[in-house]
């Protein structure tokens, strides 16, 4: 779950099935008691219809947690962490970063760093579309060392300069779930 919409959808499906839950967090649901196989299948089907899925595999769950932390940090936080992201992620998940990095790369076929860059570029696109911040402010907000660094990374990923992207009438963006 990478958005408030996803959390609300899960909450509604749990309520429909009469499954009592304590909390719904990004990527996790804490339910009361055990889930019967029948309710599990019903929940799986309902979530699948909405593009979500239940996960049992501990490695897949960990990958989703990594993705959710990155999305939360880039798209929903007012500030980026002041510490190196590897330290931030290790502390958040109480796992060694080398392990997390190798697992993510093996599973997703890209490094955590590349995934972060993809997310940051989507956030840059969003902020450009809002037209409330200039490129310097966007660069500062997303912890880029300079506007030139942001522009180079943006062009490398999209093939366009941020200025040209801003001038487009129809701006193509990816959904967070598809990255």
What does this entry look like structurally?
The protein is mostly helical and 179 residues long. 61% of the residues lie in helices and 5% in strands. It has helices spanning 4-16, 37-49, 58-76, 85-93, 97-108, 112-130, 135-141, 147-158, 162-167; strands at 21-25, 28-31. Strands 1-2 form a two-stranded antiparallel sheet. A hairpin with a 2-residue loop joins strand 1 and strand 2. The radius of gyration is 18 Å and the shape is globular. The two termini are 13 Å apart. 17% of the residues are buried.
Topology:
Elements: H1 4-16, E1 21-25, E2 28-31, H2 37-49, H3 58-76, H4 85-93, H5 97-108, H6 112-130, H7 135-141, H8 147-158, H9 162-167
Helix pairs in contact: 3-5, 3-6, 6-8
Labels describing this entry:
single chain, 179 residues, mainly alpha, Arc Repressor Mutant, subunit A, 2 strands
Q: Brief description of this entry?
A:
This protein is 61% helix and 5% strand.
Q: Describe the main β-sheet briefly.
A: 2 strands, antiparallel
Assign the CATH superfamily of the largest domain: Homeodomain-like
Please mark out the parts with pLDDT under 50 across 5 or more consecutive residues, or reply none.
Answer: none
Order of helices and strands: HEEHHHHHHHH
- Can you tell me the CATH topology of the largest domain? Arc Repressor Mutant, subunit A
CATH top level label of the largest domain: Mainly Alpha
Secondary-structure arrangement, i.e. CATH architecture of the largest domain: Orthogonal Bundle
Ends distance: 13 Å
Oligomeric state, counting identical vs distinct chains: single chain
Q: Specify Rg, calculated over alpha carbons.
A: 18 Å
Overall form:
globular
How many strand elements?
2
Helix content: 55-70%
What is the average of the pLDDT values? Answer: 88
Task: Tell me the number of helical segments per DSSP (H or I, 4 or more residues long).
Answer: 9
């Amino acid at each position: 779950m990478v958005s408030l919409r996803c959390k609300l959808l899960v909450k509604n499906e749990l309520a429909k099935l009469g499954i009592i839950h304590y909390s719904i967090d990004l990527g996790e649901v804490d339910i009361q008691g055990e889930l019967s196989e029948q309710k599990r299948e019903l929940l799986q089907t309902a979530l699948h219809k909405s593009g979500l899925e239940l996960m049992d595999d501990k490695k897949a769950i960990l990958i989703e947690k990594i993705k959710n932390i990155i999305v939360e940090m880039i798209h929903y936080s007012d500030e980026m962490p002041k510490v190196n992201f590897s330290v931030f992620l290790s502390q958040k998940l109480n796992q060694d970063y080398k392990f997390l990095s190798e697992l993510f790369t093996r599973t997703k076929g890209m490094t955590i760093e590349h995934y972060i860059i993809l997310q940051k570029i989507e956030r840059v696109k969003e902020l450009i579309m809002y037209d409330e911040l200039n490129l310097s402010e966007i660069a500062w907000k997303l912890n880029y060392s300079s506007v030139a660094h942001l522009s180079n990374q943006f062009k490398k990923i999209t093939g366009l300069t941020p200025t040209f992207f801003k001038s487009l009438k129809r701006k193509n963006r990816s959904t967070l779930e598809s990255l």
